[in-house]
Amino acid sequence: WRPHPLSAAGSVDLQLRLCWPSRMRSPHLLVFLAPILTVHGYLRAPSFLPGANKLALRLPANAVGHRCASRLAQKCRPGLSGTSLSPSRQRVFMSASTPGEAHPQDLLSMQDDEDREVQKYNGEIFCNRALNMKNIQFVGFDMDYTLAQYIPETFEILAHRGAMAKLVESMNYPAEILELADYDPTYFQRGLIIDKMRGNIIKMDRHSYVKLAFHGNKMIDRDERIKIYGNVFQKSFTSNEYANIDTLFSLPDAFMYAQLVDFKDANEDNYPMLKDKSYEQMYKDVRRSVDLCHRDGVIKDRVSEDPGKYIQAEPGIVDMLKRLKLSGRKVFLLTNSLWDYTNVVMNHICGNSEADTRNLEWLDLFDLVIVGACKPGFLDDPQLSLFRVHPESDKLSNMDNALFDPPEVSLAKGKVFQGGNYNHLHHLLGTFIAGPQIMYVGDHMFSDVIRGKRSLGWRTMLVVPELEHEVNVWLEQSVRHRRIEELGELRHELDEWVDRLSLLIVSCDNKEECAVFDRIDEIEAELAKAREELKAVKLMYSSELREFHQAFHPVWGQVFKVGYQNSRFAQQVENYACLYTSKVSNFGQVSPEMIFRTQQDVMPHDQLEDTPIRRMLKSRGDSFVRSLTEMPQRTPSPLRSNSPSRISSLSSDKE
After folding, report:
1. Is the peptide bond before 315 cis (omega within 30 degrees of 0)?
2. Which of 32, 142, 387, 575 is the most exposed place for a label (fewest CB within 10 A)?
3. Is beta strand 200-204 parallel, antiparallel or unpaired with respect to 193-195?
4. Which residues pair with 390 in a beta bridge?
5. Quick one: which of 71, 207, 103 has its CA closest to 489?
6. Between residues 99 and 578, which one has the greater pLDDT?
7. Is residue 215 within a helix (H) or strand (E), and if so which, with residue range?
8. Do the Cβ atoms of 35 and 86 come closer than 8 Å?
9. Alpha carbon of 152 to those of 164, 374, 442, 553, 647: distances in Å?
10. Three-state SS for 401?
11. Is the bond preceding residue 592 a cis peptide, omega within 30 degrees?
12. Does 195 score more than 60 pLDDT?
């Protein structure tokens, strides 16, 4: 059974030949056929079968490719009460308790897409490592881009404009850079890496192979990319020559850096200072200018004036924090922001945005607050000093005995501190506790998740705002995704055919005693045709996959994928984030006693029947020797408009 791949429009009449024992009743076969046909998107499925063994069906334009009907039939065995299958085009319900009791007209019920509710992301929390919240005694939160989600169109533009001005005013860059395009918050994405030495921005798969690269804003072609990165040892991407874009705070940095690389390449002859600056130094200047904007108030003063303009409204956070405290857990805030800014943002989250309404009541949501934490140093440097913050006066005082005074004594004088390290945190929470009793929620892959997991053994939850867009687009593109899978299976079949023909030729090795020696020319001709078909299918597959990724992002594609492999960012999420979700308030949708369970890990050998090599070997029949001495039968290729039938003599024994 082999439907034809279709063009973009029209439908194709397909003759489907059915062969079944005369004793098999029509309803029995319909139970097999219903899910097989509808999953491929047929406009209609038969409610009865004619007496003959031919059945004419009509295939719509968006039904695609080929799938082994036998494998689908195994998944939809007859006689299963209440079995249902939900394909893209139609929904099939099979309600017969047994095939013999079924009436043909009752077997199938169709429901169009218009009547079906569109699936969307609903704030699910995904689990990489099973986590029983009953074992968690302490829950900590980052603030920026975790409790407080910033609006990119306003907040990140502040960073870009302010930093560009700093480059001109403080670092002697040409004033012409101020005329460059304004910041586009959608241009880059998390998970990319900046090659500071070459001026490149790259995206890697989970094996740390570079799959996409830009020099500034100019794409590097495949040959050049392989020439640059093909022989780079994988672990070298963790050296100081590279910078990870692992937080949304870093997106303006990448945008500015790409702009400066292009400006330098185009104008360094006109500006001697640019000729003397390396790409690495330019990145350092970008980082310094952004840090200056955060320190001197260019960004945070503006946010303090009107928090609602820069911080997204996210209902449910306060209730979620209260619920955690009522469950008996200790809740702490650990942020790199200093006290004055933290106070503004937390008041806004609690509904006190105006300056005259701000107060310290939000502190009741936490048992401990540490600001100015300087993560990731806080999580791995035991020498950092802790200071007490006096909220009423915004002053600091030393905590020389922080690790020696009982925690209740230290907290009796106030629960807001600045700096310190993980030893101070553990001590103030009550004891030098084991890492797995703490869960920390943050957005920064390295500073919040990787360091907390690696260094301290904390349980972690990563906030990935991009997740909602990723999931929704994937659901919208499910038909295209199925088409990619179909083309992939067709590619596997052609791979098998090419390999089988190649094996026949290699096994013969021009020896006259070879069983197929006198037919070697015919086999080579068929091999050439098969390779052309395989090339065409690969082009179709690549085109569909490219369009699929461009639906997520026109340049970088999916955040969690590169081609059909997980991206490096996705691999880090899987390895270091016990849980991940789109926003922290999703945690309020479940109880504090929730048990998060992960899905079963699946390796290729766990999906034995779906592996290409398994299908390749099975298709060669029971006798390997016979496959060498016989030319296998093959259905005419769907890629040939007037495909000649297989030469029957090629499939017979030489004798």
Report:
1. no
2. 575
3. antiparallel
4. 395
5. 71
6. 578
7. strand 210-215
8. no
9. 17, 23, 18, 16, 64
10. coil
11. no
12. yes
Alpha-carbon Rg for the chain in angstroms: 31
Stretch (H or E) spanning 534: helix 520-550
The region of weakest confidence among 260-269, 297-306, 449-458, 627-636 is 627-636
With 0-12 / 13-18 / 19 or more C-beta atoms within 10 angstroms meaning exposed / middle / buried, residue 340 is: middle
Binning pLDDT at 50, 70 and 90, where does residue 32 land?
Answer: low
DSSP class per residue in 318-353? HHHHHHHHHTT-EEEEE-SS-HHHHHHHHHHHTT--
Mean pLDDT of 142-154: 95
DSSP type of residue 43: S
pTM above 0.85, yes or no: no
568, amino acid identity: R
**Which residues have CB under 8 Å from 110's CB, separation 6+?**
38, 44, 45, 90, 91, 92
pLDDT digits (tens, 9 = 90+) for 504-547: 888 776 566 666 677 788 888 889 999 999 999 999 999 999 99
Amino acid identity of residue 635, one-letter, is T
Could you give the residue numbers annotated as active site?
142, 144
User: In this structure, what token pair is assigned to residue 623?
Assistant: 């006798």
Task: Please identify which residue in the block is written with the tokens 């805030």.
Answer: 333
Please tell me the predicted confidence (pLDDT) of residue 61: 39
Cα angle value 122/125/131 (rounded, 5°):
155
Cα separation, 58 vs 11, in Å, equals 7
